[in-house]
Write a structure and sequence with these properties.
The chain is α+β, with helices and mostly antiparallel strands. Helix content is about 15%, strand content about 50%.
C-alpha cells in the first residue's frame, strides 16, 4: 500500500521517482531517472538501472555514447574520451542481477526540454564476448531541474507576491483531487505547503533559482493550476509537463 500524507484535502499519496525506459533487448533492460545536482551547479545526473535478463551470461563493458551539439546538455568526458563522448563503465552485472550506472551531464540553460540521442554498447560475458548495441533516447523536461523544498505558508505568500510571471490553466482529469496533487508533486518535483478541502499550495525551486509556486484547486471534471515563477519560458514548460502527465493518465 502506498504511503500517504493526511491533509485537509484528504490523504495525498507520497510522490514517487519518475522512471523511464532507456532501451532494452532480450538480455538487458535499462531504465533511467533524472536528478539535478544540488551541490554542483550546472550538473544533471542520469541514473541508469541496468537489469540483466539473461539466466546464464553476465553483462559488462557498458559504454554510453552521446554526441555533442544536442541542445544545452553535454556528457561529462572521461579522461582521454574522444569527441563522440564515449563513456565507458567497468561494471559487470551477474545473471538476474542489476546495477546502477550514473551519467553526468553539464548544462547551462534549462528553459526548454532537451532530447538526447545516444548508443549503449555492452558485452555478454559468456565466452563469446559478443558486443551488442542499442539506440536510446533521454528526455530531460524542464521540470527535471526543479527540486522540492519545504516552505512555510507565510514564506510562500511572500514569494508569490514577489513573482512577476503568473499563468493558469484548467486540466481535465477523472482522478481524485488527492491523486491529481500527487501527480503534480511527482512530475513537477514540488512539495506540499498547505492544504484546504479543495485547494492545495505547492512549492519548489529550480537549480537556477527559479521559484515555482502553485495553487491547485478542485473543480468539476478536474483541477485548475495557478502557477507563479520568475521566467515565462519556465512557466510555460512546467504547465506543459503537467498537462502531458495528465494526458498520459487518460490513455
Amino acid at each position: 500500500t502506498q504511503s500517504t500524507w493526511a491533509t485537509a484535502a484528504g490523504n495525498i499519496p507520497l510522490p514517487r521517482a519518475v522512471v523511464a525506459l532507456l532501451c532494452e533487448d532480450m538480455n538487458l533492460n535499462a531504465q533511467y531517472t533524472l536528478q539535478p545536482s544540488t551541490t554542483t551547479p550546472g550538473e544533471m545526473q542520469v541514473h541508469v538501472l541496468c537489469t540483466n535478463r539473461d539466466d546464464e551470461a553476465s553483462l559488462g563493458d557498458f559504454e554510453f555514447v552521446v554526441a555533442d551539439g544536442q541542445g544545452s546538455l553535454t556528457l561529462v568526458r572521461t579522461e582521454g574520451a574522444d569527441e563522440a563522448l564515449a563513456r565507458h563503465h567497468e561494471v559487470t552485472v551477474a545473471p538476474g542481477a542489476a546495477a546502477v550506472i550514473t551519467l553526468v551531464f553539464k548544462f547551462e540553460a534549462l528553459e526548454s526540454a532537451q532530447t538526447l540521442l545516444g548508443t549503449l554498447r555492452y558485452t555478454t560475458k559468456d565466452g563469446s564476448a559478443l558486443v551488442r548495441e542499442l539506440e536510446f533516447t533521454i528526455v530531460v523536461p524542464v521540470s527535471a531541474y526543479v527540486v522540492a523544498l519545504a516552505c512555510a505558508p507565510a514564506d510562500f505568500a511572500a514569494i508569490c507576491g514577489a513573482l512577476a510571471v503568473h499563468v493558469a490553466t484548467p486540466v481535465s482529469t477523472p482522478v481524485a483531487f488527492v491523486d491529481a496533487i500527487a501527480t503534480l508533486m511527482t512530475v513537477l518535483h514540488v512539495a506540499l505547503v498547505d492544504a484546504a478541502p479543495a485547494a492545495v499550495s505547492l512549492y519548489g525551486c529550480s537549480v537556477k533559482a527559479h521559484h515555482v509556486a502553485l495553487l491547485v484547486k478542485a473543480v468539476d471534471g478536474g483541477i485548475t493550476i495557478d502557477l507563479k515563477t520568475s521566467d515565462p519560458a519556465v512557466a510555460k514548460a512546467l504547465l506543459a509537463d503537467a498537462a502531458a502527465a495528465f494526458a498520459r493518465s487518460l490513455c
